Give the backbone structure.
Amino acid sequence: MNSAKTDIEIVSCEAFDDQRPGTAGLRKKVRVFQQPHYLETFVQATLDALSLPPGAAVVVGGDGRYHNRKAIGTLTRMLAAAGVSRVVVGQDGILSTPAASHLIRKRGANAGFILTASHNPGGPDGDFGIKFNMSNGGQAPERLTNAVYEATKSIREYRLAAFDAPDLSATGTVHCDGVAVEVVDPAEDYVQLMESLFDFDLMREFLGANRVVFDAMNGVTGPYARAILCDRLGAPAADVLNAVPLEDFGGLHPDPNPVDAAELVEIAESSDAPILLGASDGDGDRNMIIGSGHVVSPGDSVAIMLANAHRIPGYSNGISGAARSMPTSRALDAVAEKLGIPCYETPTGWRFFCNLLDDGRIGICGEESFGTSSAHVREKDGLWAFLFWLNLVAATGHSVQRILDDHWTEYGRNYFQRRDYFIEDASAAAALIEDLKGRLPGLPGKHSVAAADRFDYTDPVDGSVSTDQGIRVFLDDGSRIVYRLSGTGTSGATLRVYLERIEVDGDKLGMEADVAFAGLAARAHATARITDFTGLESATAII
Ligand code: VG1
Ligand code: CO
């Protein structure tokens, strides 16, 4: 216990009224976080709600974005004041989200703080954020984030240990008063974990004859990708693009989707395209997989992983069950059914998978938002997904296109598209949702609507209930439209409209998405009266 000998400064402050955590932690503009006391009140509220035992160990890291270093210094001092005796932090403050999750679990730490706004842009005019994870390595459940929000509204003071923020530039342990700040290589433990799951020998041999390219998008995964793909598997350094984490991501939007990772898509379409390409986001939890010039839809990706898990060493003993977030395509359900294992449908946000993973009910899970992972951590994991595909391509000798074609032929194809509408006036977005909810009972039976409901979720492990997690409209032909509001934005509101169409006709498995969705997209737009409520004639982004 160090708090007795640590000098503590108590700072009075006013509460802020906008610190409700969203889908994944608290995200705001950097300038909001730079306001005096803003980070501190949120951290203090979190520490109060967490009530860590005396002498606790806490993992701290971030994606290297602007404001990270300063925030880590403050956080370390606040953790010391809260009686934490060990802070494990990545060198230079760097830890990818999945690596932080692993470190919490490996070290038996009591909690973790991850400083990131994920795929949101960085830099002084960009976004900042903070996620807090529990001792299982997963993000705080809703009951805790609600408690934190309540605490932020009435906070009057916070506590800081009176020492200078430690230097994080070299590995080793620094003692600050009674707190041991252990600076670790961000990649070491994670590399070992990946080696325990995948067939590195096979992958190394494969890379001797085949080229793959990974784009770290100037986010956190560069050092991890270099350590694994180059140092361990022999890929040339030049094949890890944008490999140095930059505070502003080099001005890029570090979001691995076909629009923001256009450079990679271009390489994939060139005549001497690599056999496999991948990208990850700012904090390393998202992934995009490309092969044969084709971006693998995340819903297909997780379904294919489940169907082929027996080919990958770490998963060859079988998978107990699978899960997907509600808006994610139901391609996964079809595979689970064939395997005779359960497939859970959870609300959007990785934290909802964590109980299922902890309870051993599921082994693989995914979200349509380019997120996939397994029980190896309690976060989604971008580089893991890329390595899974690399191992799969190496093990089968099949191209990504062949793997997709075989899968669709066996299970049918779940065409999937997300249309985002950015709505400046958040109240207009809320009104649209309320209006649609009110009309739901009247939709079935007309215009080939089979059913329409509001998605509420009861966690099968702890019985906790999360209501209002989106709106589902099911059509007679098996198509589905889902509506929900984003919980990660930092201004206005984003309405997400998710479209899914299932095709089993062998002649219709190769359509372009725009062709596949021409009808359903117009239908979804009209059903929600999007133009009436927002003035928008079309989606702001189609992914
Ligand atoms: C989005 C995605 C969701 C994901 C979340 C956090 O949330 O839709 O699937 O879990 O981002 O991912 P929302 O509420 O904006 O739709 V990350 O990589 O930004 O931590
Ligand atoms: Co992310």
